[in-house]
Amino acid sequence: MTIARPLSPTPRSTLTRKKNRAVLDREVLYEVLDAGLVCHLGLLLDGSPVVLPTGYGRDGDTLYLHGSTGAGNLREAAKGAGVCVTVTLLDGIVYARSLNNHSMNYRCAVVHGRARAVTGEDEKWHGLRVVSDHLSPGSWEHARAVNPKEFASVTVLALDLAEASVKVRAGNAGDEPEDVAHGTAWAGVLPVHTVFGTPEPAPYVPGETPVPAHVADRAGKPVDAPRE
Amino acid sequence: MTIARPLSPTPRSTLTRKKNRAVLDREVLYEVLDAGLVCHLGLLLDGSPVVLPTGYGRDGDTLYLHGSTGAGNLREAAKGAGVCVTVTLLDGIVYARSLNNHSMNYRCAVVHGRARAVTGEDEKWHGLRVVSDHLSPGSWEHARAVNPKEFASVTVLALDLAEASVKVRAGNAGDEPEDVAHGTAWAGVLPVHTVFGTPEPAPYVPGETPVPAHVADRAGKPVDAPRE
């Protein structure tokens, strides 16, 4: 159990705009990271910025990322390149009376730092499990375990959550006073919900096989619901 | 009307892994970009990679991004810094019989290049409209127009879709032949659906005001449904 520490912004993790949307509470950082499914990992590769979606999971103040040893961006990150990991949850479209005050409701966590390639066997197993439990809780116990060859083909990275920022826009539309007073256009929020649908068994799964609870229980639930 | 050209991959837009997931059809690039709502814009800012969610819209082979003139990342992009713009749509969690073959269904478009600050008044208006029509179709006609002060406070960037890649994973789980033959674990896809919810009027909108069709018609529909 990690004791939560407040966010300690450095210049690059200090918001320069819409500071009212900055959140300085580490618990909110955890909530956003735990509610997302994929992050966007950005780094410089051969001199160009590259941003790719990546699976991740959090354990305390460590974010684990994983992927194939063949992935160029993970290889570069494993060498200690500076990275930015961003998790964005879109919660709604904000319609204001003025076009200029149209906006989006969202929760966004941004983590800066240098990742560490996890090479110790125990921590690598742990990191894999953290990512697996994040994306598909229950699979670690249910599915066929990772074998040594598969284990060797996976890269696990660890990124400390020391330097992070969280930005949240929630609530309804905001308009200029004159638009509130005299405007006639509709204003409001059109929520965006991301939910799990109905499980679709693979063709090689016998028809009488029940969908296991760790999958079936997610059906119809919001993706950002707390994991079991 | 722009005539579609096939994707012309350069080294940085050529997939090095899972090449079977690469899509070389420009129409698919358009579909993914048109289906998303926010992109992730990555660039180097003060020596560090920064990845932030950003609104965008597409017109032919031009991607328009917009934001406040105060946003540091847009200012940097406007100077001609190399950027990577990524749009990811998550379509499902793939449960395989083996942990190692767990995956995600997704559609992901990645655009590399250097953005151009749109300074000409006509094109800037056009870019704003393209972004507005992408995020909230109908608002351009319905809401109070952008005034000169607001117009001046917005940065519009244009990014050519010359160098892009698209990666798609769809369909059901795949497993090793021995797991297909002898495994007992459940395998399948748990779809992820992103849908618009019920419009929530702002408190300053009179109760009897009907929700206009351009908002009401989106309620309950998938976010990635084709725009009207």
Question: What keyword list fits this structure?
Answer:
homodimer; about 230 residues; alpha+beta; Pnp Oxidase, Chain A; 2 domains; ten-stranded antiparallel sheet; about 35% strand; disordered N terminus
Structure report:
2 copies of one chain form a homodimer. Chain A is globular. The first copy, chain A, starts with 21 loop residues before the first strand and ends in a 12-residue tail after the last helix. By secondary structure, the first copy, chain A, is α+β, with helices and mostly antiparallel strands. Residues 1-5 of chain A have low confidence and may be disordered. The first copy, chain A, is built from 7 helices and 11 strands. In chain A, a hairpin with a 7-residue loop joins strand 5 and strand 6 (103-114). Chain A is 22% helix and 36% strand. At the A-B interface, strand 2, strand 3, strand 5, strand 6 and helix 3 of A face strand 2, strand 3, strand 5, strand 6 and helix 3 of B. Strand 10 of chain A pairs antiparallel with strand 10 (188-196) of chain B.
SSE series of chain A: EHEEEHEEEHHHEEHEEH
Mean pLDDT of chain A: 92
Number of strands of chain A: 11
Number of helices of chain A: 7
Task: Count the domains of chain A.
Answer: 2
Per CATH, the architecture of the largest domain in chain A is: Roll
Point out poorly predicted stretches of chain A: 1-5
Shape of chain A: globular
Largest interface: pair, residues per side: A-B, 95 and 95 residues
Largest sheet of chain A: 10 strands, antiparallel
Oligomer: homodimer
Pfam families (chains A, B): Pyridox_ox_2
Protein name (chains A, B): Nitroimidazol reductase NimA-like FMN-containing flavoprotein (Pyridoxamine 5'-phosphate oxidase superfamily)
Organism (chains A, B): Prauserella shujinwangii
